[in-house]
Structures are given as C-alpha cells and as structure tokens.
Write a structure and sequence with these properties.
Blueprint (H helix, E strand, L loop, with lengths): L1 E9 L2 H17 L4 E9 L2 E8 L2 H14 L4 E10 L5
Antiparallel strand pairs: 1-3, 1-4, 2-3
Length: 87
C-alpha cells in the first residue's frame, strides 16, 4: 500500500470544511484503489493522509490533490509514501 500525504493552509476553515465533507471526501473515497483517508486540522493548517492499494493509484491521487483543493485552501506539499506498517 501507498499513502498520499498533503499539507495545506486554510484561509476560510468553515467554507473549506463544508466542501471537504460534501465534495472532496465522497469523490476520493470512490476512486479506484482507495483504502482509507484521514483529514486533520490544527489552527490554519491541514494535513491529510489517504491510503491506496497500489503506488499507481496513489500517484494518480497525488496528481489530483491540487485541482481538488477548494477556494481558500493552498496546497503546500503533497507526496506519496510507502506504507510499511498499520494497525
């Protein structure tokens, strides 16, 4: 498995959280190869980790992160990492 880890800065938390819950999460969770996803927030920063069955699926998801970011969200970084353990 592989994970996509994204760090964002959020300028409008209320609006962007609504878009996240109503549009982004449903779209991501239906993508081929999706295993699990977690989106977190601390102050005006966000960190998400989505887990994918294959590296190819993770790379495809990584490539879509910036285009899926709603207004008020700036993607600071996005990377693919190999999952080496889970519980």
């Amino acid at each position: 498995m592989h994970a996509v880890v994204a760090r964002v800065t959020v300028s409008d938390p209320e609006s962007s959280e609504s878009v996240l819950r109503e549009q982004v999460v449903p779209r991501v969770s239906q993508a081929p190869g999706f295993v699990a996803g977690y989106w977190t927030r601390q102050d005006n920063g966000g960190l998400s980790m989505t887990v994918w069955e294959t590296e190819d699926a993770a790379n495809t998801a990584r490539d879509r992160v910036r285009s899926m970011a709603p207004d008020g969200v700036t993607v600071e970084s996005v990377e693919v990492r190999e999952v080496i353990a889970s519980a």
